[in-house]
Structures are given as C-alpha cells and as structure tokens.
C-alpha cells in the first residue's frame, strides 16, 4: 500500500551499473532495457487496477 512517508524513507538511493560488452555480444538487451521491460510488465499486469477506476478519484 502507498504510504505518505514513502519518499522520506526511500530517498537518497543510487544505482550505478557498468554494462559488460560481452553481454551485448551475446545479443542480450542492455540492463536498462531489461529493467524497463520488467517495469512495463508489472505496470501492465492483468491484476493491475487503477485507483481512479476503483475509487472514482485519483490518488
């Protein structure tokens, strides 16, 4: 569930990724594209329910 203090306790986090060229040679997607696809799969999941549709208002 969404919490009003979400950004207070989840801020100041960084991620640095070094893409290995051998992965690209094996025809694997760059990690950025893999993460984007994963995010889209979860966002567009069949069990996703818009809060606006559910409660008649935006969150």
Provide the residue-averaged pLDDT: 72
Q: Count of helical segments?
A: 4
Rg over CA atoms: 17 Å
Number of strands: 0
**What's the N-to-C terminus distance?**
12 Å
Shape: flat
Give the secondary structure arrangement, pairings included.
Blueprint: H1 6-9, H2 21-25, H3 31-43, H4 51-55
Q: What can you tell me about this protein's structure?
A:
By secondary structure, this protein is mainly alpha-helical. It has a domain at 29-59. Helix content is 46%, strand content 0%. The radius of gyration is 17 Å and the shape is flat. The model has no long low-confidence stretch (mean pLDDT 72).
Features:
59 residues; 46% helix; 0% strand; flat
Overview in brief:
With 59 residues, the chain is an all-alpha fold.
């Amino acid at each position: 569930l969404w919490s009003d203090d979400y950004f207070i306790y989840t801020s100041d986090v960084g991620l640095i990724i070094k893409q290995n060229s051998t992965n690209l040679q094996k025809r694997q997607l760059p990690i950025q594209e893999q993460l984007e696809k994963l995010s889209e799969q979860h966002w567009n999941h069949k069990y996703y329910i818009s809060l606006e549709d559910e409660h008649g208002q935006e969150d």
